[in-house]
Design a protein that fits this description.
The structure is a homodimer of 340-residue chains.
Chain A lengths: L3 H8 L3 H9 L6 H14 L5 H8 L4 E6 L7 H17 L3 E6 L3 H10 L5 E4 L9 H6 L4 E4 L9 E5 L1 H14 L4 E5 L3 H5 L4 H16 L2 E5 L5 H14 L5 E4 L5 H10 L9 E5 L2 H4 L7 E4 L2 H18 L7 E5 L2 E4 L11
Parallel strand pairs in A: 1-2, 1-3, 3-4, 4-5, 5-11, 6-7, 6-8, 8-9, 9-10
Antiparallel strand pairs in A: 10-12
Chain A binds a DNA duplex (16 and 16 nucleotides) through α2 and α4.
Chain lengths: 340, 340
DNA sequence: TTGAAAGCGTTACCAC
DNA sequence: GTGGTAACGCTTTCAA
């Protein structure tokens, strides 16, 4: 493999000149720049990342801590991962995977060994164990998810409260007076991933303002549980029923149960599921969906951390960013009650 | 951050001794080892990855090239990614994400800059554009998927032929004389991802041997297409119908169409879907599944590349490994024809 | 506008 | 069994 020394010799300049041509941190005459670029081309030179990191104290790598919870709708996790990796490249950074299995020690490891310059944590819980470690780490960290106490942390997430609000408002506008929310799965609720609470706050607030009744019912991947929830909802509903199922893993099940009860979404029952545009296209049945904007959240997370890295931020930055959610009606699946 | 020099001073030994204590490449007396370990502990020393890579010419990082095809069942991609990352850690390596968007230049980049020591490519197509580059790369590469010409390459994949064979055999044993295979989605088929062909070879071979008829029908995420396929299958089927739907994205749709035709899997129609044990648990409806072993394929891919890295393999290695697939019957969902 | 040289923190070879 | 020291390939300061 050619080194910058080789390039320097080939171009008849000093090694430092090669470095400056590449970094642009110093004005270079057109003539020598041409020579150097030609030599680089010629030798297919690529700078050695290790040496560069050693000398510059920057790896241009961001650690991404991914959750592995089978219950957690892996498709949407993958969407985050994928967009994060792509966005990072656009900012001339790479993504190193850190699995949640490694826990807090894993964070200390990648930062301590200076494998990466900063971290993005996905699926941050309300009372995340890793927060103390994160605060003690002397590198920029961006959290996806809002912990109970975000003091001194940089957080970003979809605006779940807005999402809950929008769902109820749209259903109310379609004439429903009772709206049933199928909860996230128990595994998620138990973890106190606090977007659940935020979503519910949104639904309840809107319900209060609009005089609509909101029922909260258990979700999960167990058909019987969903069936039970649906039946309870139907029993308590006057007029045509409406469901909100923000958890991706619940939606199929819900539709199946509804259909077994003789109800067709968009005809005699309104259903709002959640789906990003990407995943929504794969949904075979048109549905009204609430887009929790995973792609936008991902992009912003990367952008923020890259800014922090540029700034070489030492001061304890702190911020909390909520990405607006969007409801999309694909076909007309929200129908007013039959008699209306 | 403390360096090995600091540790050496604290322990009263030479810097090289610290290095040898850590690497174990040289016998160390119990006494000095203790001293060094104490100092490391004391200073919470962690070796600098860049410096280490520079000196040892090994990064202990493996590049993982992930596909981003929304059609491609992101949940299963995520399963690969997750298992690969975990397994890599068990072998003391990290995973760097390389997105498919970067294409062949991306491969050259991460290898050229020596960001990683080797590569794993997912979703390798029959006639993958990246193969020439892969062959020219002077680092170990493991392909997940079998290209048309695997000469000089190290490949691993599930044994799709075996899978096709097993599916047909099990359905034949359950008394079906006509078996309908719902194809992968056109996007996949068009890409000549040749596991499709291999699967079909398996079904057809078994069909020939057992005197069973196999129908191949279009798949996809379009409900009408699936409905059409199902109707065609039903029209051509004598006795009770049987379906094989190896594509994860097709399965829900298939079940929905079947139910709209008044058919219940496990009662009046046999259905074999594909699912790893992890994902199968999330399937709300018990189904007979063919496990294409993504986790096992992932683990082996990592193991292989780590072996190649250890061996510091220069010679053009070559191998092709097929991981056996497994059919699992969850509840009794394969039923012989009613009259049988 | 350019060059020379001193690090950056390891590893690994050569002595002892 | 241990210490000294020369790389490893880059960035950046200091001089010119």
């Amino acid at each position: 493999m050619p080194t910058s020394k080789d390039v320097a010799e080939a171009a008849g300049v000093a090694q430092s000149t090669v470095s400056y041509v590449l970094s642009g941190k110093r004005p270079i005459s057109e003539k020598t720049r041409k020579k150097v670029e030609a030599a680089i081309e010629q030798l297919t030179y690529q700078p050695n990342a290790g040496a560069r990191a050693l000398a510059s104290r920057k790896t241009r790598v961001i650690g991404l801590v991914i959750p592995f919870i089978p219950e957690l709708h892996m498709a949407s996790i993958m969407e985050f991962v994928s967009v994060i990796a792509n966005t990072a490249r656009q900012h001339d950074h790479d993504i190193l995977l850190v699995t949640e299995d490694e826990g807090a020690p894993g964070l200390r490891r990648v930062v301590g060994q200076q494998i990466c310059d900063g971290l993005i944590l996905m699926q941050v819980e309300g009372n995340d164990e890793r927060l103390p470690v994160v605060r003690s780490l002397n590198v920029p960290v961006v959290l996806i998810g809002i912990p109970r106490d975000p003091t001194g942390l940089v957080c970003i997430d979809a605006d779940f409260e807005m999402a809950g609000d929008q769902c109820v408002r749209d259903l109310a506008a379609a004439g429903h007076s009772v709206v049933s929310v199928i909860d996230w799965q128990p595994e998620v609720v138990d973890r106190h991933v606090n977007y659940v609470d935020r979503f519910m706050r949104g639904t309840d607030k809107a319900a209060g303002e609009l005089g609509v009744t909101v029922l909260h019912l258990p979700g999960g991947t167990d058909r019987d549980v969903i069936a039970d929830s649906v039946d309870k909802a139907l029993a308590k509903t006057t007029g045509s029923p409406a469901f909100i199922a923000p958890d991706g893993t619940v939606q199929d099940l819900l539709r199946r149960v509804l259909s077994s009860r003789g109800l067709t979404p968009g005809v005699d029952v309104s259903v709002i599921g959640s789906a990003s545009p990407t995943l929504a296209d794969l949904q075979p049945i048109p549905l009204t969906t609430i887009d929790l904007r995973p792609a936008e959240v991902s992009r912003r997370a990367v952008k923020i951390i890259c800014q922090l890295l540029e700034a070489d931020s030492q001061g304890p930055h702190e911020s909390l960013e909520l990405v607006p959610t969007v409801i999309t009606h694909r076909s007309s699946t929200l129908r007013p009650p039959r008699g209306a």
